[in-house]
Write a structure and sequence with these properties.
By secondary structure, the chain is α/β, with parallel strands linked by helices. The chain has a domain of 106 residues: Rossmann fold (3-Layer(aba) Sandwich), CATH 3.40.50. It is built from six helices and six strands. Helix 1 links the parallel strand 1 and strand 2. It is globular, with a radius of gyration of 15 Å. The chain starts with 10 loop residues before the first strand and ends with a helix.
């Protein structure tokens, strides 16, 4: 989605990372939105390590309610979350946060993504990653989850 296509009714979320604008998270998430004809997009926030603490310390008071966390910040983000789901507690990292009434909640979707497959032990990291993006797109914007579409999304995102 190009900036001029964003309208008042466009659903928005944020991605935080060193290269959030060009990273796989944004690419796959937006591809899933487009594939599902959803009027939503992920806005990238490219930051450096020195700006991470300031950003996360203030996210609870900002207008951000949904934020994906790129891998380089996934462990550091845990310390800014008031609550974590079981997977995030166990893995000591978060894939995304949600802000509700100023409280930052951290989530990891590894378990949920693997549960979509009969034999997740045979899958590579990229398939699991795209499955997590599908789960997130479904959670935030009610897009469908169809694991049979993952190879198509991977092929067209290269």
């Amino acid at each position: 989605m190009r900036p001029e296509e964003i309208k008042p009714d466009t659903g928005l979320c944020t991605i935080l990372g060193h290269n959030a604008q060009t990273g796989y998270m944004r690419r796959y998430f937006n591809k899933i939105m487009k594939h599902n004809s959803k009027n939503a997009t992920a806005i990238a926030l490219n930051i450096t390590d020195e700006h991470f603490d300031f950003t996360m310390s203030n996210v609870g008071e900002s207008k951000v309610t949904m934020m994906m966390i790129e891998r380089e910040f996934s462990e550091k983000a845990v310390h800014y979350c008031e609550t974590l789901n079981d997977c995030a507690s166990r893995e000591k990292r978060v894939d995304f946060i949600e802000v509700e009434e100023g409280k930052v909640k951290g989530y990891c979707f590894d378990d949920d993504a693997k549960a979509l497959f009969e034999k997740p032990e045979f899958l590579d990291e990229q398939i699991i990653f795209v499955a997590k993006m599908m789960l997130l797109a479904n959670r935030w914007f009610d897009s469908k989850i169809d694991i049979d579409e993952i190879p198509l999304l991977i092929d067209t995102t290269k």
